[in-house]
């Protein structure tokens, strides 16, 4: 049964659009948490920020796909919003009109590939596979060891999101844990 707030929200497309934009903004903020870059190894680069944004969007989409209608509509609107942002970012970086579609196709393939890999590893409870995929795709290195902290973060974020209903996701937003809590302890000489 759709809660009253959600039912009202989806009667007006401008309200729904605003809610999705707010959700997207909160996901952007979470993907820019300094600890992801300083403690969990995500490179602070254009590619690293794309990978981190993708990771956080994928986690929220996983939850949205588990919820009843109209969550699937919100999920599609979120994907549309993310890809509009990516298109605008490419143009701001100076990619020309003819190059944008080609780059967007590559970004789309990367996005959906990351989503599938994350889903398989999380659904199967395979932390080693998750760490390996995160090390390779997000951190940009080979070997699961580099992705262990990020894998723990992703599992905790997925568990946190599992308790969120659509009202919470659109109201207060998704809750992501503090990345610093999942960093490997620093070894001092």
UniProtKB/TrEMBL annotation:
Pfam families tied to this protein:
Ubiq_cyt_C_chap
Q: Give the transmembrane ranges.
A: none
Task: Tell me the ranges covered by the Ubiquinol-cytochrome c chaperone domain, including all copies.
Answer: 39-176
Family designation: Belongs to the CBP3 family.
For this entry, the protein name equals Ubiquinol-cytochrome c chaperone domain-containing protein
User: What's the source species' lineage?
Assistant: Bacteria, Pseudomonadati, Pseudomonadota, Alphaproteobacteria, Hyphomicrobiales
